[in-house]
Recover the amino acids of this structure.
């Protein structure tokens, strides 16, 4: 392995870790912020919220969505570079294979939900749309794909556990 390749996969790993922290942190922040909008267990909006407060919540959700989209793109790019350039091979490292499968299987789900997030960010930053438009987009985002984004988030947390404990690692070499 050349010196350039060693630096490449290590830089990709560093970028992957930093972007993942921003991405998963922003996902949690957006969930906490958005939790104030809906009645628990329903897709109905709370009536007690003032329209200006609701608008501010949508603005904060738009900001965090932009951070999520940028961070997710960085995670996808750096993860792909890491998988291609690292000395870790999936055949000997089952945890890496499982992590890659868990991440890439939800790529279409993330792209679909990012389209909705992108619409919300566009409306926030480039138009003067009212709360009713944001409500419909937010409702579509929460109900998207019958809960697949929640399953995806649980898979991403599983990837952290797999990377830490590294199960299914096969030792290559002479057997004792």
């Amino acid at each position: 392995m050349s010196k350039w390749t060693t630096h490449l996969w290590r830089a990709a790993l560093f970028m992957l870790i930093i972007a993942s922290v921003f991405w998963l942190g922003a996902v949690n922040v957006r969930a906490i912020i958005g939790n104030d909008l809906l009645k628990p267990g329903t897709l109905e909006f709370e009536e007690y919220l003032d329209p200006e407060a609701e608008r501010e919540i949508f603005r904060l959700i738009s900001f965090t969505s932009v951070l999520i989209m940028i961070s997710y793109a960085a995670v996808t790019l750096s993860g792909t570079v890491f998988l291609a350039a690292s000395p870790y091979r999936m055949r000997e490292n089952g945890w890496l294979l499982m992590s890659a499968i868990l991440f890439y299987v939800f790529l279409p789900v993330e792209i679909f939900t990012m389209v909705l997030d992108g619409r919300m960010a566009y409306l926030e930053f480039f138009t003067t749309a009212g709360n009713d438009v944001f409500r419909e987009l937010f409702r579509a985002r929460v109900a998207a794909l019958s809960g697949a984004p929640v399953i995806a988030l649980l898979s991403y947390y599983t990837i952290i556990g797999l990377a830490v404990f590294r199960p299914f690692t096969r030792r290559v070499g002479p057997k004792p």
Helices lie at 3-34, 51-85, 94-104, 107-126, 131-142, 148-165. The first helix runs from residue 3 to 34.
